[in-house]
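> forwarded from #structure-qc
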């Protein structure tokens, strides 16, 4: 059987058991190949031998399949193995196997067709049976699924679902009841977390649920308890709303507003909010002021907490006034900023909520919402004015609670700056002009300024009485803008906006304070400029800005090689060493050689310490005026008094002399005289001397006046060696001119500050007072010119000259040489003075003009003293005068020579006829009665009769009569 199976395997056939898994109805059998048949045929073909071999096979090999041939053969082996025997026995077994295989192969070949046919039938049957088994199996499985899915499961699911629904409903009710019972705990947690909308939403939901489950006895009393809880939430919500008044937080305020929206009380919330802001302002300012009062009071038993705020403000000490005011404004700023941000929040949310709904179903609700937003907007806008009014009243009470008249200037300016900044906040907050603040600070400012100005005038009088009128050495490029009092003029900010707040890419004026400090900070934290920023560098090191300029003080400037290079420039900038583009030409330098005595120094401004002090005062006054425009007129009026007093002092010190004022040369113009009289009447306390002697108290009207100053005893104006105090006179007069120039420079700025109604006062001050400063040069320098040359000696010399000569002279008289020597000596003295004080060209011109005028008038007076004079004598007068002019022109650059025609006309009048002389007397009233009478008596007496002479003398008397 084994061999048959082996053969079947070789033929590719399968046993029925192996073919059970194959469902194909027909199996294709493989026929042995030719090679396999050939192999079997190659075996021995002798049938008889083959049969014998087969018959020699033991019977046991033909037994059942369980026969183990190998075991059988192994057991047959002898104990002693012989290789040759084993090989022979093996060959025998091989021959038996080959014979059996041959016979089997023959039998298979013989029975193969029928075997194949039968095997096909068996295979087909087997396949059909397998299909039937599969169909039966599937059918049973489907029947089982149908039973489970459509019968038992469905009915079970229905029953379970019904039970589940009942249990779910019960569980929901149980959970709701449990939640309701734990509501208090959760609400407390949400309130601690400041989740007010969630707490209100939860409370409202609990109320609704409680009404739904009221049939349960366990929650029958929950409704009343929830109502109490809701009222408690509203109280806490009101407290939370009040917190936004000082420190606005978007998230916090959003929660609060959402909570009020859920309660349906948005309008009520807005009313409450304004009440809280009002209360916050009151509480804030009271606590700030109370803190400082208690701090400064120490252990005093006074119960400040029970005082009214207005009374509390009167207990602030001067030392704590500014810190308290600063903290007060900081705290009020926080409140206003919170209100400003509150308005912004509502504007942003109104624009978001105003978007139209997708459907028109909620028209009624939309109308109600629009009405609510409109109410809130109007309420907020109206609240702006109310809150700012409260702020003003609180600050006003603080400002008026202390007398600031004795404050330091810087402290008072700082107070003004703070209030000015606060008024700027008011403009940006609600567009208010802050009339309350302006009025209160104006009252304090006027009070302070009057006291301050009175003190400054007294100080100025003290300065002037101790002033020795020495030059204050400043640099050549000195400007009042370099003084820290005038730094504010160089800043492009608004007077009420601090420089430290100009930090924006756009124009700082376009950035409001609320935008600038939106994220933090405070506009009242800015302090006044440090003193380090106020340092100045305006003084020259030693009065000379170049060592070279100190040398060669007064040399002959005819040769350019002798002139230092520095002197060929206008000036050299100390800081950079740059030379101006425009330089002094050689011709100009030569023209200055005798008239300008300033070539030894750079043309630095001439001013004194007192002048500098007045300029600083003007800067301080302008700072105050710049910050507080309502008192601009008072400030400018006081500034004008500073200038008036300085001008009056210079005049009384150096220019007042009745003898020379009546000289007839117009030394003091009518405008200057009017100005001096006005100053004396309005500003000078002429009764001060008598009062000091009598000891009477000054009247109220005289409190606004200042005693006339007295010249310091250290200033000597009578020494001829110093040209009668010329250096002091130059310093005093030119410092006044410099001061006037600075006032001219400031006029445009003052004009913008002055109220329109008061502008005529400013114009009158400039046209009648400031512009007259340079006119003081004439009377002041006249004093020097009148004494610098000995005119009396010249009159004596002229009196000794004989004028009734018969021959024309070719030599001039000695008095001309003496007079010219006087002028040369005067020129030398001017040079000596210029070594110490620069004598500007206008000053030297005025001095020379005065001296020449006096000399010419002295000549006319000398000619008028002549008793007898011939035609040759009159020619000698002309010769003397021409000699004087020729030599004088070499000493001075003044052209034409002053009063030259005055002398020449008088000399030529000798040749006039009677009729011409009468007309001459009428036209030339500049000559004195004595001079005209001498012309008639001496000069014309030789060729007119007595009657004509009487007629001319009567004409002279008629001219002189109106003067009497």
């Amino acid at each position: 059987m084994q061999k048959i199976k082996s053969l079947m395997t070789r033929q590719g056939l399968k046993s029925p058991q192996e073919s059970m898994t194959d469902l194909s109805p027909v199996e294709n059998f493989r026929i042995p190949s030719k090679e396999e048949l050939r192999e079997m045929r190659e075996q021995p073909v002798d049938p008889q031998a083959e049969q014998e071999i087969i018959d020699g096979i033991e019977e046991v090999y033909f037994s059942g399949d369980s026969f183990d041939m190998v075991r059988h053969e192994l057991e047959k082996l002898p104990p002693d193995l012989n290789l040759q025997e084993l090989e022979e026995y093996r060959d025998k077994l091989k021959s038996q196997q080959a014979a059996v295989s041959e016979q089997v192969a023959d039998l298979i070949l013989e029975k193969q067709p029928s075997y194949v046919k039968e095997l096909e039938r068996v295979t087909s049957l087997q396949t059909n049976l397998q299909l039937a088994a599969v169909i039966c199996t599937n059918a049973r499985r489907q029947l089982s699924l149908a039973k489970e899915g459509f019968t038992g499961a469905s009915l079970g699911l229905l029953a379970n679902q019904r039970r589940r629904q009942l249990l779910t409903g019960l569980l929901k009710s149980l959970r709701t009841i449990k939640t309701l019972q734990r509501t208090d705990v959760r609400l407390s947690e949400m309130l601690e977390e400041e989740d007010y909308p969630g707490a209100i939403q939860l409370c409202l939901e609990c109320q609704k649920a409680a009404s739904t489950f009221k049939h349960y006895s366990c929650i029958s009393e929950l409704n009343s308890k929830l109502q109490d809880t809701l009222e408690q939430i509203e109280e806490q919500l009101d407290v939370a709303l009040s917190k936004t008044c000082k420190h606005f937080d978007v998230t916090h305020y959003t929660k609060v507003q959402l909570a009020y929206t859920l309660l349906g009380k948005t309008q009520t919330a807005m009313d409450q909010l304004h009440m809280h802001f009002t209360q916050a302002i009151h509480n804030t300012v009271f606590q700030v002021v109370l803190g400082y009062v208690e701090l400064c009071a120490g252990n005093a038993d006074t119960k400040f907490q029970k005082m009214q705020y207005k009374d509390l403000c009167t207990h602030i000490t001067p030392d704590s006034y500014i810190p308290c005011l600063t903290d007060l404004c900081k705290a009020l700023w926080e409140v206003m900023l919170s209100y400003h941000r509150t308005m912004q929040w509502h504007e942003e949310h109104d624009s978001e909520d105003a978007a139209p709904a997708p459907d028109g179903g909620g028209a009624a609700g939309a109308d109600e919402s629009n009405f609510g937003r409109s109410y809130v907007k109007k309420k907020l806008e109206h609240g702006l004015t109310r809150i700012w009014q409260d702020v003003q009243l609180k600050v006003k009470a603080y400002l008026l609670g202390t007398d600031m008249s004795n404050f330091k200037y810087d402290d008072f300016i700082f107070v003004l700056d703070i209030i000015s900044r606060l008024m700027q906040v008011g403009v940006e907050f609600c567009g208010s002009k802050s009339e309350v603040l302006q009025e209160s600070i104006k009252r304090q400012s006027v009070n302070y300024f009057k006291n301050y100005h009175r003190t400054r005038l007294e100080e100025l009088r003290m300065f002037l009485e101790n002033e020795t009128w020495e030059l204050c050495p400043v640099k050549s490029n000195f400007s009042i803008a370099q003084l820290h009092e005038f730094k504010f003029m160089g800043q492009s900010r608004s007077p009420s906006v601090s420089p430290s707040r100009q930090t924006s890419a756009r124009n700082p004026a376009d950035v409001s304070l609320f935008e600038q400090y939106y994220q933090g900070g405070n506009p009242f934290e800015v302090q006044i400029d440090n003193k380090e920023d106020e340092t100045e560098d305006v003084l020259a090191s030693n009065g000379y800005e170049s060592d070279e300029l100190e040398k060669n003080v007064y040399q002959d400037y005819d040769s350019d090689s002798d002139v230092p290079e520095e002197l060929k420039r206008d000036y050299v900038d100390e800081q950079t060493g740059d030379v101006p583009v425009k330089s002094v030409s050689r011709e100009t330098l030569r023209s200055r050689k005798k008239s300008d005595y300033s070539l030894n120094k750079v043309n630095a401004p001439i001013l004194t310490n007192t002048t500098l002090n007045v300029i600083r005062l003007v800067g301080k006054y302008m700072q105050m005026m710049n910050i507080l425009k309502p008192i601009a007129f008072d400030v400018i009026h006081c500034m004008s008094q500073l200038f008036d007093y300085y001008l009056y002092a210079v005049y009384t010190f150096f220019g007042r002399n009745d003898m020379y004022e009546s000289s007839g040369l117009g030394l003091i113009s009518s405008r200057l005289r009017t100005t001096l009289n006005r100053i004396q009447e309005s500003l000078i306390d002429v009764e001060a001397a008598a009062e000091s002697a009598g000891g009477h108290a000054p009247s109220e009207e005289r409190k606004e006046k200042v005693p006339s100053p007295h010249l310091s005893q250290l200033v000597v104006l009578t020494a001829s060696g110093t040209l009668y105090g010329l250096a002091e006179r130059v310093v005093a007069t030119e410092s006044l001119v410099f001061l006037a120039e600075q006032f001219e420079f400031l006029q445009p700025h003052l004009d913008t500050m002055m109220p329109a109604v008061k502008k005529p006062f400013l114009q009158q001050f400039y046209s009648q007072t400031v512009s007259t400063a340079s006119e003081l040069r004439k009377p002041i320098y006249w004093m020097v010119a009148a004494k610098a040359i000995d005119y009396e000696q010249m009159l004596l010399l002229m009196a000794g000259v004989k004028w009734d000569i018969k021959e024309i002279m070719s030599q001039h008289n000695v008095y001309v040489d003496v007079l010219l020597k006087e002028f040369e000596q005067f020129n030398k003295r001017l040079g000596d003075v210029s070594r110490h004080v620069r004598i500007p060209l206008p000053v030297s011109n005025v001095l020379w003009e005065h001296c020449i005028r006096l000399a010419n008038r002295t000549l006319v007076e000398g000619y008028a003293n002549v008793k007898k004079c011939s035609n040759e004598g009159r020619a000698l007068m002309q010769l003397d005068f021409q000699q004087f002019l020729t030599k004088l022109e070499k000493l001075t650059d003044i052209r034409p020579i002053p009063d030259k025609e005055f002398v020449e006309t008088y000399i030529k009048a000798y040749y006039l006829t009677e009729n011409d002389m009468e007309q001459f007397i009428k036209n030339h009233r500049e000559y004195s009665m004595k001079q005209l009478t001498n012309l008639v008596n001496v000069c014309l007496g030789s060729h007119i009769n007595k009657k004509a002479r009487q007629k001319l003398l009567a004409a002279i008397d008629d001219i002189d009569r109106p003067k009497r």
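QC bot note: The first strand starts at residue 684 and ends at 685. DSSP finds 34 helices and two strands in the chain.
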